[in-house]
């Protein structure tokens, strides 16, 4: 009930008048304390409607061939700028492909983006120029003019996560703002509580280091040295920051110069019409292809097993409802947002869905914001995938990568009957068990970043063939995992091995691609920290598809040699007796005297003694189809190559072989497989009988769990 | 005449009878408007059967069976492993495919009527 008595009384607010309304309105709209992330921009995943300028340009350009040629030319411009940037960047991730160059519409929709880079950027990047357009263009103390240089890294304003830094230039022609040119690099180090860009110990965003909202850092193509200096003062790698702000500016200017050439030779109208057409065509084509899939509802769940500072299961659940040409994504049942850095923001999670379409489902289309624009999202608020600005998010990949796995699994089931151009493939490995570090190098330089073994993710098995080993990260399929020699030259590291251990992939009719185990010792520095921020010690990161199995488990192994670096040096000098190039065998055999520890692969940064060895596996891709259908000779080959253990050959693939001659016994294999099929029929239970035994009303005791656990009332009880 | 649509590696929908069928042995698994998993045989697999433990202890390079189980789904006709699901013990099973059968029939009919479509 509202109070109706308007008489002024002590403690009762004065009545509203037009004057007070005007005052309040001005206070609330024109006098903000600060310009935080704009919820409208952050929730806006659709491309903007056509502007008048775009309408006019589209009217002026009538020849579709011209648009196609122009698109290719812009793509060539950004690809070559990306190649150049990869060569001149200092960030380790950039050198091996974790970067992107793109051109946005004047309104801020990313319209053309390098296909060989990180496609997550294509959909997550648009809020940044949109923010600048809305808040800084008319702000007298900022403004947007030709030659301005803008910068950004705070993912609450856009982008995938804070280690990714975006540099933007507005593109002008004869005084008219035509478009935006953007360059994104995974730089890493941000001056957070932990070194290297990811901050597992941050329990709120204020521990995540430098948070740059979209801001102007230079005019007339000249960086403000005092602003750059302020950035450098915040971080552990001031040299990398200086080099890379400059190298991103150089790449953006290269694109700008060549787009100026293009507009001079052709016209600004052609560029505007091309950028618009690509966005609209991509969105329309996604809808057209979605219409081919059967209507229905497709679901998948997966579970992470570590929330950075403790072991807990957390659930990521997706549901896609596909009707006609529409696809709605829902995430109810997913774990809530928590005070750990693994929360994802909605816009970044949507862009991961865009990545799935760009890299796996419709990989033939140009990369841009049109993909995500074609999808409807009904994401549950308050979840680990829809974190607020007060949640830490630097490691949003820990929830986002599981989201990728569930999205991939559900959509592969949706499209199987009518795949069109899509290759049906089991889930890719998606997690980040890569070395992170910070400290003083052997060159007495302060540094902090990540090592790029993350790019060695094992590929999922294909419908018709095995997955590729140590292929690429699912978010940047042309990225590389770098050279050991480079790493050892730059950093105080001794690489003991990078080697594929047995059973490190999903088994199936077609097996997933395996991946490598890395082993690094600290070497040549006494002031250096190691860190790993991953999952998958108890619950596999990757599942299988259509009867295939997922990957195994990948704990972290730490060896502290007795006698430190000297003892390690001596052991190596003596030929490393007993060395097996495999953590599990090292743990079993202990060929080097010392302390051995096996733990979950999430350990915040701490200085370690020289000579300490950390060993960690990157995981393999999921398997496809019933393992009993795998060609027995292919199993023999896997066995001979050490990709699988004899136990797996026997117990999973059910092959029989002559161990001395390593020769398959085809007849015995066939009968062993028949026996296994018969055994399945004997041990398998009907659905209701199974559920009656299986069903628990809550998670098992001793297994902390985040997410829903809702059995339908009528199942098995 | 039978119009079948292959929905997964091992599952078809027979549009005529509106039933899920095994693509290997043609076993009729159940109504296409229901969860196909209800017509399969299920088994609670200890993950250490699949991934050999390489060392003693909880973190053995195999999944921890207290945290993770593999539910295997077999065709009751031929014993083919149609699906696997990785779940914490006792967690609800996933109704992963819920097909709009009427829309599928309409889509199939429209496709068959197209020039060059399969007029089965
Ligand atoms: Zn069958």
Please tell me about this protein's structure.
The complex is a heterodimer of chains A (717) and B (120). Chain A is α+β, with helices and mostly antiparallel strands and 717 residues long. Chain A folds into 3 domains: 55-287, no CATH class; 425-630, no CATH class; 631-710, no CATH class. Chain A is 33% helix and 18% strand. In chain A, the strands form 5 sheets. Chain A has a 7-stranded antiparallel sheet with strand order 2-1-5-4-3-6-7. In chain A, strands 8, 9, 10, 11 and 23 form a 5-stranded mixed sheet that branches. Chain A has a 5-stranded antiparallel sheet with strand order 14-15-20-17-18. In chain A, strand 1 and strand 2 form a beta hairpin. In chain A, helix 4 packs across helix 10. Chain A is globular and about 85 Å long. Chain B has 120 residues and is mainly beta. Chain B has 1 helix and 8 strands. Chain B has one helix at 101-113, and strands at residues 4-6, 11-14, 19-22, 28-31, 41-45, 69-74, 81-87, 97-99. In chain B, the strands form 2 sheets. Chain B has a 4-stranded antiparallel sheet with strand order 1-2-3-4, with no helix packed on it. In chain B, strands 5-6-7 form a 3-stranded antiparallel sheet, with no helix packed on it. In chain B, a hairpin with a 4-residue loop joins strand 1 and strand 2 (11-14). The longest helix of chain B is centred in the C-terminal third of the chain and has 13 residues, at 101-113. The mean pLDDT of chain B is 93. Classes of the chains: A alpha+beta (717), B mainly beta (120). Chains A and B meet through strand 8, helix 13, helix 16, helix 18 and helix 19 of A and strand 5, strand 6, strand 7, strand 8 and helix 1 of B. Zinc ion binds at residues 22, 24-25, 27, 75, 77-78, 80 of chain B.
